[in-house]
Amino acid sequence: MSATEPSPLASQMLEALEADLRAATAMLGAGSYAAMAEMVAYHFGWIEGDARARGKRIRPLLALLCCGAAGGTWQEALPAASAIELVHNFSLAHDDIQDQSPERRGRPTLWARWGAAQAINTGDALLALARLSTFRLRGSGATESTVLEVQRTLDEACLHLTKGQHLDLAFEARERVTVDEYLEMIEGKTAALVAAATTSGAALARSAPRLLEAYRDFGRNLGLAFQILDDVLGIWGAPGVTGKPAGDDLKARKKTLPVLFALEQSAPFRQLWAAGDDSEGSLGEMTLLLEACGALEHARAAAGDARRHIGIGIGCFVEKAGPGPWETARVALDAEGRATVYSGGASLGQGIETVLAQICAQELRLSFDDVKVRHGDTAEVSEGIGAWGSRVTVVGGCAVLYAAREVKNGLLERAAQRLEAAQEDLIVEDGRVWVRGAPGRSLTFKELVQTHGLSADHRYHATQMTYPYGAHVAVVEVDVSTGQVAILDYAIAYDVGKAVNPRLVEGQLIGGLAQGIGGALLEDLVYDEEGQLLSATFMDYLMPTSMEMPKRVTVRILEETPTPLNPLGVKGAGEGGTAAAGAAIANAVADALELKGAGIMDLPISPQRVLEALAQR
Predict the structure, then answer these.
(1) In Å, what is the CA distance from 143 to each residue of 10, 113, 138, 160, 603?
(2) Overall pTM > 0.85
(3) From CA 171, how far away is CA 256, in angstroms rounded?
(4) What tens digit of pLDDT does each residue of 36-73 get?
(5) Least CB-packed of 172, 190, 400, 509 within 10 Å?
(6) What is d(CA 67, CA 63) in angstroms, rounded to the nearest whole number?
């Protein structure tokens, strides 16, 4: 699929939209009004034209896409999408008359073929059909209030559209127009209807007001960028693409953003513009002057299309975690009935004190505050393999689980003798053991261990490793003039089997991402030609800081598939934030730069490498 071809989903939407548009215009009827229906069919490219004559249908497609993106069913938004396209074509029919444009999309315009009066009338009919189309939303499941909200949105857009057109026409008679006035004009003439499309789609998905506002802002900004780039096409666009003669906007004396910029920056352009010569030679010279003064580059930059490019990248991974062969643990109850966990694991800041205490407390049915964890002291723990390979919870946690279970069994044996009850009739909870159905017959842990302490050691053997998996999604922005990469947004989905402490897992994933960003964008061992390390100090070796982290990181911890390879069902989480960061960021940069083939193959993605990749496109 090429960059200009719609996706399968967009193709499906466009096909359904075309059918719905025909249904929306069918109420024009036949008989005496057959000629009017023919004008509408001609204008929409259904007769005497190819697919290009129909236009791109961008605005209604945005409505359908936004409805789906906001969680709605896009098919239910078809009447609103048709209404938006009808409003757009109402404005085109009138705009062609006001601009005296003889052609649109490579064919005669309505007024050029049937006269201005009939074209005005047909345009008015399209506006009426648009309002009637919104009433069909009731048959798609929309509530009365939602239908009224969509109608209000469209009516407000129509008002802003006509106000924008008023300014556009007024500018033609004025010698001086400011850039701010121009932006106000296109916000009404173009951005308002795009914003109505995105807002209506979200409204039909029953979005909250705050989300509606976000979709409205998105549509407004998109509409502004779209109009500025359309102004660029009005001067530099190929007739085969635009359906208009080259330089048509210059000939029509339209004060678009490139023209306004050149009028401020170029005295030769001001003189030629003031001369009013619309000959082919003069138009060509004006085009060259626009380019010479930077008007084309300025317009593209204003639309966000010149220096900064946004891309999305995905990285998927399966890793191994929890390598053995074994780990040790001891759980001991003191004279007060509180527990101490002694682990052969080691703390690297990953929070094992919390996790091991939780595992012990859960098994002994103790309060978390009554459990403490000791590690890293050979006087207390003579053997241990340590922390690496995401193994402390997977292997060391299972050792704690079994040691705590042996302690619990010891408590049950003592309580069974003293309470004269079978072990299966005893319940362990809140630091005491009682007889089922007779909670008054109970003993506390303190009472059970006061004369004889209780502890248990366990060496857990891990015969197989676990295999957690996940995906990273990165959104980056690349400044192609400097090669700088900024991470705008990031998401991680990670299957951990079972999360003993989800907040710690989330923290490890975000911390791991920071390390992954360092490897993806910054950290590099650089040598000179003689093998001398040049990045041997922290002055030269770049590391990530909070400034390199995205403002938002979304983490989704998956626990749907606990591993059957250990009793806790855990798979390890220490490396999930790092494993796919390089791939996701590299793919996002390749997407932003529209690189072909293998894309980015070397890390870190330094500014120099970005510029080299651009030069080889």
Answers:
(1) 26, 42, 7, 26, 53
(2) no
(3) 10
(4) 999 999 999 898 866 677 888 999 999 999 999 888 99
(5) 172
(6) 6
